[in-house]
Amino acid sequence: MDANAHINPPLKDVAPEDLAPEPKFMVKRRAVILSAASAFRRRGYHNTSMRDIGDILGLTKAALYYYVKNKEEILFECHLMAYDAMDDILKRPQAPDENGLSYLSGVFRDFVTLLTQSGVSILSDVDSLGGERQAQILARRNQIETAVMKAVTTGQTDGSIRAGDARLHVFFFMGALNWLNVWYDAKGRLKGEDIADHFTQQLQFGISR
Amino acid sequence: MDANAHINPPLKDVAPEDLAPEPKFMVKRRAVILSAASAFRRRGYHNTSMRDIGDILGLTKAALYYYVKNKEEILFECHLMAYDAMDDILKRPQAPDENGLSYLSGVFRDFVTLLTQSGVSILSDVDSLGGERQAQILARRNQIETAVMKAVTTGQTDGSIRAGDARLHVFFFMGALNWLNVWYDAKGRLKGEDIADHFTQQLQFGISR
DNA sequence: AATAAATTTGACTCAAGGTTCAATTTTTAT
DNA sequence: ATAAAAATTGAACCTTGAGTCAAATTTATT
Question: pLDDT tens digits for B161-185?
């Protein structure tokens, strides 16, 4: 029923004056999710055990269950975290004179920066989620794809983007994003900023007219 | 030791005259691999049980072990199959007057066609392979990336491809390829041929100068 | 038809890893 | 200092799915 009951931090007594949202619990919970996200990205969901996740933070796997209902919930939250961040990026204010291509470039650049600078990663293993959660995540992903596609058609209307099937335009450069997620190593020689520059340029040349 | 001993079809007696390689066994073995590849691509390696794989061919999971040593070997062969096909494509003869961009476009188009028309799929789960096999697959992948990068630098030398970090050029459009593998549905409205056309064009615009 | 080889199966074993929980340690509040 | 709440743990439990194997069935051979 109330699948999210446990995310409420255990409060001794609901002191009405102290409305500052009790951070301790949530902060550590978020740390658990982020550690897991990083491990999932590198080794994959099923190749990462609860033990592995705990080890990163110096915890026993049993301790994780104080912050999280089960492993699947961690995966779910990883997905949510990524899509929340992407939603925020899509809210970028569009200058009235800005054309579709320019807006799209900015969004894409921010996507790349998100994946290289923050610990957030796009996970592709949506099949390991059970029915309800899986549906929710697929809906979110679809919503993002739709927003990006809309930006493309806008650009096609204002003449800044080449004609052609918008979905194919989008899938092409969104693929670059997902793949980036797989090979990018924060400690490697390629710096996030450079990748963002290069990718944004390649996106522009690829679809501008 | 001889990890591949079992792929030799059980021959009653090595009749020296009959050199036509006994197909029966190998044909069905290949069918097992391909069925698994398709399931792995859609649901992921760990979300696909031996039972699932057997079901596709109307077999019991126990029967699969007649054709294959273990599940990991299936994954390994899936990877090999994809990389073998990609190696073949890279062997494409290069007309003496053909520039780097043109060669690369042809290769890329064939890659797209491979993924949409044949049952072959690029699997990304290389972490589920044990040490030796994993190393082998990573080497193969690296070898292909190197070949594609070489094509890019050739194109940069002959003036057909924009300057810039060759690795970034490559990762961008190879991402499209890997992502294609995730979303493409043979029964969907997008036809493989159209995707190949569009993607090849987007590749060209993206990196030509 | 009889026999041998090839193929398939049902029933079982086994290990890995996710999950639970009562008990313990650490932190916070009085 | 003491008590209550929060955080963590070790040891068990349990489910899932990979892998084994002797026996049964199907296919090829003489």
Answer: 999 999 999 999 999 999 998 899 8
Find out whether A168 and A114 touch, Cβ atoms under 8 Å. Answer: no
- Which of residues 139-198 of A have CB within 7 Å of strand C? none
The pLDDT tens digits for B82-133 are 999 999 999 988 888 899 999 999 999 999 999 999 889 999 899 999 989 9
Taking only the tens place, the pLDDT of each residue in A140-160 is 999 999 999 999 999 999 999
In terms of CATH architecture, what is A73-207?
Orthogonal Bundle (1.10)
A206 contacts on B by Cβ (under 8 Å)? 202-203, 205-206
Question: B16-68 and B73-207: same fold?
Answer: no
Non-local (6+) Cβ contacts of A19 within 8 A are none
State the smallest CA–CA distance between residue A148 and chain B in angstroms. Answer: 16
Tell me how crowded residue B133 is: count the other CB atoms within 10 A of its CB: 19
Give CA angle at B126 (A80, A141), nearest 5°: 20
A vs B, Cβ pairs < 8 A, gives 111
Q: CA(B199)–C1'(C13) in Å?
A: 51
d(CA A203, CA A169): 10
Long-range contacts of A59-65 (CB under 8 A, 24+ apart): A64/A32
Q: Which residues of A88-98 are buried (b: 16+ CB within 10 A; e: fewer)?
A: ebbeeeeeeeb
Nearest to B175 among A165, A175, A206 (CB): A175
Question: Structural domain boundaries of chain A?
Answer: 16-68, 73-207
Largest Cα separation within chain A, whole Å, is: 62
Minimum CA–CA partner of A192 in chain B: B168
> Distance (Å, rounded) from C-alpha B7 to C-alpha B26?
8
Q: How far is the CA of B65 from the C1' of C4 (A)?
A: 22
B50 touches strand D (CB under 7 A): yes
pLDDT (tens digit per residue) in A159-179: 999 999 999 999 999 999 999
> Do the Cβ atoms of A114 and A33 come closer than 8 Å?
no
Domain A16-68, architecture per CATH: Orthogonal Bundle (1.10)
Task: Give pLDDT tens digits for A110-128.
Answer: 999 999 998 899 998 999 9
Query: Model-level pTM?
Result: 0.85
